[in-house]
Amino acid sequence: RIFDSESLELVLDIPAEYGEGSALNKSKVIGLVDAPGQKFVFSLYDAGEIWIVDINDPNKPAIKKFRNIGKQPYDGLITPDGRYYIAGLYGEDGLAVLDLWHIENGVKKVLTDYGRGTEKLPVYKMPHLEGWAKAGDYLFIPAVGEHAVLIVDPKDWREVGRIKTYGQPVFAIARPDGRQVWVNFAFPKNDHLQIIDVAKMSIIKELAPGKAILHMEFTPRGEEVWVSVRDEDRVNVYDTETFENIKHLQVDKPSGIFFTHRAHKIGL
Fold this sequence. Notes:
By secondary structure, this protein is an all-beta fold. It folds into two domains: 1-112, 6 Propeller (Neuraminidase), CATH 2.120.10.30; 121-268, Methylamine Dehydrogenase, Chain H (7 Propeller), CATH 2.130.10.10. The protein is 0% helix and 46% strand. It has strands at residues 2-3, 10-12, 17-18, 25-26, 29-35, 39-44, 49-54, 62-66, 73-78, 84-89, 95-99, 107-110, 133-135, 138-142, 148-153, 158-164, 169-174, 180-185, 193-197, 202-207, 213-218, 224-229, 234-239, 245-250. Strands 5-6-7-8 form a four-stranded antiparallel sheet, with no helix packed on it. A four-stranded antiparallel sheet has the order 9-10-11-12, with no helix packed on it.
């Protein structure tokens, strides 16, 4: 469903149906992002599809569907430049990538080793694709079920390196200037943060804010990062140059932290 951002009135109700004729089925919708040009892009978990909805004319929305993109897309993201939509696949290894500048080329499968692999490791929490970091010339991607962050070159979608981490990463978030990537982890190792120096391609700092670190959010220019520590009812504020904990905010069971400057960014 699409709503008017000012009046909150319903503008469009698009059934997430797939199949043909009397064999229509309904699917869960995941990975919804706002793309440039008055478009929304999302994936259908049960159908294995990616849809683009163009609402330049809300009375006649144009819907483009890409079928057979992979099994059970569980999350999606759009790169900060608005060019690529990427869906993670739960039902198989790999990622589905759609170049929004050249949709005529369709969806391609990349990083076919990305996922749980042949050795089914316990996955305590699937990484959020919105938690991927674009920093410098590379993407920093939490590995599924591994203690590692993958380094990927988006020019050809190859893995060019990996950094071993304290636990299974959930979010890898870039400081706005791209110099650092902050990483948090899934249970039972969700009490630590690690900071990657992008120029050095290595971990330069480890912090232990407390139990159940769920989310991180940088201030617009990146001088500070706010960290939710759910099981200690606290938000910690860190200086990103000195790594000093400069402030504590007592908050009941904090989870997501979202600053209003996100409204001016693509895909957030």
